[in-house]
Amino acid sequence: MFGKQKQNIKNESEDYKGLEIDGIFPPLKKEFFTELKEITNSPADLIIKDVTETITVAYIENLVDGQVLNDQIISVLDKSEPSIPEALPNLLNIPIFKLAGQKKEIIYDLLTGNVLIHIEGYNLVGLANIAAAPTRSLAAPENESQVIGSQVGFNESLATNISLIRRLIRNPNLCNEEYSVGRQTNTPFSVLYIKAIAADENIDIVRERIANLKIEDLIDSAMLAELIEDNSYSVFPQMLLTERPDRFCDGLLNGKIGIIVEGSSMAILCPYSFVEFFHSREEQNLRWQLATFIRLLRFSAVFLSVFLTPMYVASLTFHYEIIPQPLLIPLSESRAIVPFPPIIEALILELIIELLREAGARLPTKVGQTIGIVGGIVIGTAAVQAGITSNILIIIVALCALASFTTPNYMMGNVIRLLRFPIIFLAGFWGYYGIMLAFCLLGIHLLRQSSLGAPYLSPLYPPRILDWGTAVIRLPIGLLKTRATSNGTFNRKVHNEKAKPQRDDVMKE
Amino acid sequence: MMKKYKLIFIVFVFMTVLGGCAEQKILERLSLATLIGYDGGEGENITATAIIRQVNPEFESNVETLSATARTSKGTREQVSAQVSKKVTVGQLRVVLFGEELATAGIRQSIYTLLMNPEISNGIYLGVVEGEAKPFLEYQYENITDISQHIFNLLEHNIERENSISSTLHEIGRDYYSPTRQIVMPIIKRKENVIEITGVAFFRSEYMVGRLPAKDIFYVKMIRDGFEKGTFELVLDGENFESVSTGETPEELAIALDAIKTKKTIKLIDQNTPEYDLNFKISVRLTEIDASIHTGDKKTLEMLEKEINKKMESELSRIIQFTQEIDSDVFGFGEHYESRVSDSNLTHEELAEMYSNMKVNVQVKSEIIRDGVFGME
Asked: Does the structure's ipTM exceed the value 0.85?
């Protein structure tokens, strides 16, 4: 039975071709628009308007700028009455204007905010792009906030996002390849990279993966990232989703490839290694000592966040020998009133923290503040007094949660928190042996992953000591002589020379 | 693919099923033995006195002293187990003490069982109690709530400050199983309501054969491990200082020194006797001296150094002579000999016997590199 169903699905997927419209429209007005209506299923917002007897315009009501339509198109056409479509480009003062004859092209352009100008007797029509897409104004990125640095984030418009990037990188080598995907949605997206810095292989891989995409719809870039990732089944993201133009451009300049999807405020950057997920753009703006300290702090926070609660569970369940003597009495005394074994105790508290976090994320900001009070006072204090958890575990769990929030990438932060649960189970079943097992499995899994074919754990493994200057610590800009190898770029040399004439030198001149 | 899922399934089944096999030792459901004292009992029996910490739900933990007599240490554990409400475990054991009588009769079995038990850390301290361990541990000390922690801290800080010989299980095991080295342990004793380190016990093989008072621990330690830090006191002959003294010189001139650096060199100069040169180069800080001696003068310092050398040489020689008399090679001269003279063809018994006939020339070269500020540290 299952086999049969599978067969059906397979046949369907072979039929995947997208919207199928071929051929050209008939030249006569009446037939032309009848067929147009037929293909578009005569939507209510399709306006067909006769300007003169021979000239007709058609557009989708809410997609075009009405003012421009009236001033620049209808009034001009009314006045000059062109008789052939070839005269239209010179006549109309519209920046994006083209002549088209293919049905498919005409229909798609109509649906993206073009005005169709038809002249009786011709199947070649003029298409004037006067799209007025509703967009949100630029705002500060909420998920990746930083103290020092630019405070602008992407919005949902592809055009705006690309203009943001072009403003940061004014370089003819910044390539922009536009594609669209999704049988139902036809979502356009741009692949951006800097020629001669981005590795050709990587660009080819991205192109190929996009070409092989067969999907129904694409609503957000996260979906696209999942579809073109090396291993979609892994819990670890292999491509970065960022809403910061500066971080995006930083990636491009280091040889990464960026993808921006229309309708999504998150841009994709690839290839991206595990270590880089724990970087923040802000570190580039801080003094290098400070940035290095913060970065190392964050790495240790990750380790703590994953292993501290399991270590508590393992130590108290199996390995009481390793508890240092000064800790022994406070630990056992606070545990004495708890009726559960440590694993249940830890799971309860971890779940509470996760619930609090989830509730805080879903609620509006103003209500969200009460969550803090509920979490802090009610659960924290009451749980201990009721004898459900021990004081020390509350501290540990809070510390773990705090540590996981230091990860600048929201996705990775969530992964870090999720990883704890299986490790807590293993610690509760098998003690430190279980933790070690989890550590090994985690290590093996990470080693097997790749991002666009580049090793995911690079530069830790394979070891690329030269890359540590940017990946593990942050060297001062003046000392950076090479780009990271993990991006596969051949153009590795970076010219960062400090031009700093001394005061004396200037005075002599 | 199907095979892979089957494998994962099997692993999960084993995980849940075998998870129950691992013996849980949940901290607050255990009785933690933190100190054990062994005494010799009637015949082959040994008496174990354990300090056991138990936690009860009223937010308090209490310390109990329980004892039992049996043939084996596991036997005593079972007997102690019958007296407590929670399972007795020894993973948090910090100190093991031996009654003097047992130490004289031999502690081979105890060292063996301690080393063989994986629960027990190799970092625990071993020591000898003057008299019997049981009354020593059962005594109600006025100001000590947890005697095991007290003794552990007492030993630890004195070892840290280099006032006592380090006697961790690891070191004792090493010396015991080395055929050419003998064990030393600190001796502790109750003095009214105070516990103090009163000396150092010397062993030959498993038997305690001699002891020296606490003030000699410094020299024993100096020969065994060198000396890095810590203060010691010397009493010099006052007569020699009359020429440099500004006032009335005391008959015995007591000085306090603080060692900064010690360098020990052993040199075998004669294989047949055998004869050793034992040289010490010590740099010290003078931290206390009689007010009549003016240390600003270089001549005085040189004289002091000379006297210190003389005094220390005689003390060190005395210690070595004592260990030779009781035939306890705690300094590992035999070990040194064996490693240097590869063609000696001596058995370990012969090497051990050789110790009492060794000739050791001690030479101390001291240098006072700081003086004048009598700080504590």
From this structure: no
